[in-house]
Amino acid sequence: MAEFDLAIRNGTVVTASDTIRCDIGVRGGRIVQLAEAITGATRDIDASGLMVLPGGIDSHVHLDQDSGPEIRMADGFESGTRAAAAGGTTTVIAFAKQKKGSSLRACVEAYHKKAEGKALIDYGFHLIVSDPTPSVLNQELPALFGDGCTSFKVFMTYDDLVLNDRQLLDVFAVARREQALVMVHAEGYDTIKYLTEKLESEGKTAPYYHAASRPQLIEREATHRAISHAELIDVPIMIVHVSGREPMEQIRWARQRGLKVYAETCPQYISLTADDLKGENLEGGKYVCSPPPRDHDSWNAIWEGLKDGTFQVFSSDHCPFFYDSAAGKLHPRSAESFRYVPNGIPGIETRMMILWSEGVAKGRITPNEFVALTATNHARIYGLYPRKGTIAVGTDADLVLWDPNRKETIRQEALHHGSDYTPWEGFAVTGWPVMTIAGGRIVVEDGKVLGKPGDGGFLRRDISPYARAGS
Ligand code: DUC
Ligand code: ZN
Ligand code: ZN
Predict the structure, then answer these.
(1) DSSP string, 278-296
(2) Average per-residue pLDDT in the chain?
(3) Contact of 251 with 243, CB cutoff 8 Å
(4) What is the pLDDT of residue 49?
(5) What is the mean pLDDT of residues 160-187?
(6) Phi and psi for 448 in degrees, rounded to 5?
(7) 360 phi/psi in degrees, rounded to 5
């Protein structure tokens, strides 16, 4: 019997801390040896001229999420994880959303059913708490944390999701007691409602006004309020999908005060602007997400934050809908007002190539920083480390063979996601995933999907060391 199932030979191994020329030996789905030269494997993969990185971890994706009347999400766990793997990602953490009036536990069970047997790569769940009843706070949440869903998201806006300040404080207190990590969608409910109604009354109803209804100051105010609540309770928080300079400055301010405030940003905030929402015939609807993309000043600010550690994680916020095809369309009332356009864009497959191209290829971040932002920090923060997120003996053999110099153009026709468009159509990138390996299995080789639904499994995550209160 061969000593190894797989040997990845002649590549340059890049982790968050090191860049080393070595071979990788894989057996039983795990990395069992790192050595100068490995022989005796059932299968050899020649990685000459390539970098071997930890498979990407995308800790912010929405799959098969109930999105309200007349809207269907474009990806479930099968197509979503297929697209993730094609983009170099080997683990996703998706949201299990509580419906107001329903038990959170029942919602999580429903998401388990949606995912079981479908995913090509491993997946975990964050909870979304929309109805923090006493039984949710005192029984359901602690039990679900024990089941490996050790983080949850709360929203400061949206009719069906918003928590008021008192409810935020109550759930933050549970997070502190149970050491769960809180993720916050920081945009203000009443301010958005005010501006939406004002814009509509002025006849400003095109998709572009989605961005005008959610300016940075609304995100800044909510970010500051979430930080203040977290300081009051003394609980760490993660501010997700930070879009620009103003909310980012609040996060910096908090960290300078010694608060455990972590932050995430996404490809749309370094490569799209509010002007993209200006297209004719509802074309702008392809770029509607919340918070909205901003401007070049915000891109520059986000790069500063990615470089200086203000942001720990770079996620896609993949939230895929349809634009106009046989598979699906925008909400039928989208022409009436931007308020009906579903908030979210697809990006699970394009996340890593955009960050590499805009970041590493343009000299803004190093390959090691890229690995930290796309994999290692996600694993550390969300309780998956060291099983996931690095390359070391004993870890899962989740790897991506990366061609740092390959030039490609992003095209919808070549993508694997369920949406009928990509916001990055025609976007030129340098750097490309040529092979994705998950649990020692080749899932995607040069765009060809070899993995099967059900190959991926549910990840019970540990309590996050980042969720510990105090300094
Ligand atoms: N928040 C998300 O995290 N994703 C899509 C829409 C939203 O508001
Ligand atoms: Zn959100
Ligand atoms: Zn999201």
Answers:
(1) G-TTTGGGGG--SSPP--H
(2) 98
(3) no
(4) 98
(5) 98
(6) -95, 125
(7) -75, -50
286-341 pLDDT, tens digit per residue, is 999 999 999 999 999 999 999 999 999 999 999 999 999 999 999 999 999 999 99
Q: How far is the CA of 375 from the centre of ligand 1 (A)?
A: 21
pLDDT tens by residue, 80-89: 999 999 999 9
C-alpha span between 194 and 204 (Å, rounded): 14
The pair of structure tokens assigned to 342 is 């579903």
Query: How much is the average pLDDT of 18-22?
Result: 98
Which residues share a beta bridge with 216? none
CA 300, chain centre distance (Å): 21
Mean pLDDT of 198-223: 98
Check residue 471 and give its pLDDT: 62
Contacts of 55 (CB under 8 A, 6+ apart): 88, 89, 90, 91, 121, 375, 388, 398, 399, 400, 436, 437, 438
- From residue 141, give the alpha-carbon distance in Å to each of 39, 107, 165: 48, 12, 19
Choose one of 62, 127, 287 to mutate for the ligand 1 pocket test, by most ligand atoms within 8 angstroms of C-beta: 62
Residue 341 CA, chain-centre distance (Å), reads 21
Single-letter amino acid code for the residue at 124:
G
Find tokens 């602007």 and name the residue: 273
pLDDT in tens, 138-151: 999 999 999 999 99
Q: Are the C-beta atoms of 122 and 148 separated by less than 8 Å?
A: no
Is residue 219 very low, low, confident or very high in pLDDT (cuts 50, 70, 90)?
Answer: very high
According to DSSP, the residues that pair with 324 across neighbouring strands are 329
Distances (CA, A) of 395 to 9, 133, 382: 18, 39, 16
Q: Whose CA is nearest to atom 5 of ligand 1?
A: 344
Q: Which pLDDT belongs to residue 1?
A: 78
How would you label 325-340 residue by residue, b for 16+ Cβ within 10 Å and e otherwise? eeebbbbeebbebbbb
Answer yes or no: are the C-beta atoms of 449 and 437 closer than 8 Å. no
CA separation for the pair 123, 178 (Å, rounded): 22
**Ligand 1 atom nearest residue 153's Cα:** 3
In the block, tokens 């805009």 appear at 358
Q: Which residues line ligand 1 (CB under 6 A)?
A: 62, 185, 241, 289-290, 317, 319, 343-344
Closest CA to 444 of 418, 422, 415: 415
Angstrom distance (rounded) from CA 271 to CA 355: 9
